[in-house]
Design goal:
Number of helices: 6
Shape: globular
Number of strands: 5
Oligomer: single chain
Length: 146
């Protein structure tokens, strides 16, 4: 039924649970997976704060890329252990949901498996929910792992 599953990850325990579920589903269906991590656009945040320092910006970007590689390595390792073909993508965007949806379209994914942190009330309003935004803007089926 599914041929290519996109699995966004933020490195959290909940996200790792979604990775395991997505890989298991891919194994059952004989599908491949693509792990994605979206790095916030720190350049925009630093410029907004009015304190542009190229050294600081470069250090922040290097640290973010190192974290992303760690998160994506978990996806690759989990898929490898299950014998599931896996690719990974690291994007930079100030709108993670948009990068997730663009990648899903570009890679012709037919399912997105992701987690929801389950924020409620004011926290949900202030922090938003990338999962909710993906659900709102996609035509691709989404499996939300809780």
């Amino acid at each position: 039924m599914f041929k290519h599953i996109l699995i966004p990850t933020d490195g959290s325990e909940l996200s790792q649970k979604a990775v395991r579920a997505g890989v298991e589903l891919a194994k059952i269906h004989g599908a491949s997976v693509t792990g994605i991590h979206v790095i916030p656009d720190y350049h925009l945040m630093i410029a907004y704060e009015g304190a542009f320092d190229p050294v600081t910006e470069e250090r922040i970007e290097q640290e973010a890329k190192a974290r992303a590689e760690t998160y994506l390595e978990f996806v690759k390792k989990t898929a490898g252990e299950a014998g599931v073909p896996c690719a990974s993508v690291c994007e930079t965007s100030d709108h993670p949901y948009d990068a997730i949806l663009k990648t899903a379209q570009e890679k012709r994914c037919d399912l997105i498996v992701m987690t929801s942190h389950g924020r409620k009330g004011l926290a949900a309003v202030l922090l938003g929910s990338e999962t909710r935004k993906v659900l709102t803007h996609t035509t691709i089926p989404v499996l939300v792992v809780r």
